[in-house]
Amino acid sequence: MAATSDSLGGCHDRAGGSPWWVQLGYPSFEAGPDHLPRPGQVVRHYRRLKRRPDGKRWTQADLARALGVTERYVNLMEHHDEGFDSFSRRRFLAEILAIPPVLLGLAELPGLGKQTTPLQAPAVISRPAIDVEQVARRLSALNRKGDLSTAGPELPLVEATLRELYEALPFARGDQPYVKRLLVGYHTLAGSVLRDEQQPQRALEHLNKAVGWANSLQQETLLAFALYRRMTALIEFGQVERALQDEQRVRRLLPRLPADLRVALLLRGALAQARTGEAQRQPGRVLALLDEAAAWLGEALAGSGDDRYHLPLSRERFQIDRAAVLLALNWPRDALDSLPTRQLSGMTRANVYAELLAAEAYARLGEYEQAAALGLEAIPVARTIRSQVNLDRARRLTERLAASPFGSAPEVARLRLLLNQPGRGRGRAL
């Protein structure tokens, strides 16, 4: 509950002289509005008590970096009490500077309420007959959008198209195999979007259906692709044993698969294996899978260019996926050496992923400042493309940095602020 002017003013009136904060043992700040101490003086006092990793006290420049504002703005805050009209900013300042909340008009730090905004129902496509060619073109366009950034905003359209396909299936006759292939494609797309948004139950429902339809068609390449997408989600959701079951199933298909799909599956298998305790002790099996994938990479890149499954295959993407495996083995220096030296053109989500892998590797090596800098670059982009999976990676990075000797640095406070901003996009500007 926030402190009110009545409750705090009463404390002052009963004493008759000293303000209530002096009576409670706090410094003799000048009185501000609403029977509270001047917030700028409070912030300046506690900012000077804050210590950086090198033992020096926080400067106005340090606080400016943490808040993402200019040093002049902090000067105005401290000397002219500007910028304290935001409740969330007061709460953040109280947290990072260890200010007793009551001094900023907060009796206690409020908890985060549960999200109550109802999900909007997806739009409905209503046409008397299905145009399978148009639906296929739509799937290709949505997959390209997902590869470059995110297809998240199009999820209602994806789910509406799935309903349309299911309604058309009994009447498709000779086109039934084609419609079933489209069902596999749309279910894998929906599952991948929901994986990126960290919705495990819904994602796996779609991916299980994709595997089921692919299995019914008895097309090994299509089945391997559906299993690849499901393995990716299972690994992300921490269900490594189930991912390994899919990996064993895929191993029987590998000799008959095209090179690009073979490389993708070998990399996923290596990542699943790397997440096991056995691999931490004996990484030979994981390294063998990486070597096998590398051996097929040249043929995969020299293929016909038939990207029917929209596999994110390039030499740079191979390096990113290899780095993820090495990091899972807790080999951070090798992971950094594996990462590409340049960003992938137009591949926003992959670039954010690579930045966060590098940040995690630097953090494990004790190079905390570099880790924080990469995290600060990645978070706004991940938020813009609504990539919850990457925001969660950034959150784990921030927790690691906060628990390190670098934990009191303003960069770590800034990371926490960026992660806690509400809504989509960049959040509220400070």
Keywords:
430 residues; mainly alpha; 434 Repressor (Amino-terminal Domain); 21 helices; elongated; disordered C terminus
Describe, in plain words, how this protein is organized in 3D:
- This protein has 430 residues and is mostly helical.
- It contains 21 helices and no strands.
- α9 packs parallel to α11 (220-236) and α19 (368-384) packs antiparallel against α20.
- The longest helix is centred in the middle third of the chain and has 21 residues, at 176-196.
- Mean pLDDT is 85; it is low at 1-15, 108-128 and 423-430.
The pLDDT mean sits at 85
H and E order: HHHHHHHHHHHHHHHHHHHHH
Report the radius of gyration as a whole number of Å: 27 Å
Biggest β-sheet strands, sense, barrel: none
Distance between the termini: 24 Å
SS-based class = mainly alpha
How helical, in percent, are the residues?
55-70%
Low-confidence stretches: 1-15, 108-128, 423-430
- Count of alpha and pi helical runs: 21
What's the number of extended β-strand segments?
Answer: 0
- Strand percentage: under 5%
Shape descriptor reads elongated
